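Hi V.,

You were right to ask for the full record rather than a summary. Here it is.
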Amino acid sequence: MSACGSYSGIRRTRGAVRRGPRYSPCASAYNQDQTPATMSGCAMLTINEIFHSIQGESTFAGRPCVFVRLTACDLRCTWCDTAYAFHEGGKRSVDDIVAEVEQFGCPLVEVTGGEPLLQEAVYPLMERLLASGRTVLVETGGHRSTARVPEAVVTVLDVKCPGSGEAGRMDWTNLERLRPHDEVKFVIADRADYDYACEVVARYGLARRAAAIHFSPVHGSLHPRLLSEWVLADRLPVRVQLQVHKVIWPADMRGV
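Predicted structure:
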């Protein structure tokens, strides 16, 4: 048993916000079933919102960032704070999305959701954002393979703990393919989640695989002081992560 305990369940902006579709010259390249065109610039994504805000999480916390939030998620985490992204959104071309991102003049971009890896055209989008000279992050729930995420993209991998209700969906091979610049996040609701996260960190040697490991308390549920005391007592190689945007703005405010 580790110092953090054991969990037997482990098996192995404020800114311009735009929602909905805009006219795109690529629209004619799609049939009624939205079959992707061959040109990456004309590939289509369902976008929930694009906005400019302060990055609230990861080692990039505190930096201005453009967020591209994709619609749809096949998880239903108990503590989800973006359920509006399950269904709301409109079709946008990659060209259209990149053009809007460029308007903010910001070098940092995060592709998020929902679950961004559900949409095939997310890969040409990330490539185009990289080609524009930007630092690109993708935040993913951990249950979809990260094998095709471009090498230069920083993957922020969210490992679901039992309190999320979705721990059984994790694709554990994603932890084995972490690159030195990737980051791992655990959203922690209680002591059981904490023990589970500790076990995963130890089992997969995450301290040597990832650039950072974040333990994030469920906002309004687990007090960050208590989580901090656990981390200090166990001398863990992790960061206690608060959601900075929820400190700056109301926790339920969209577009930040």
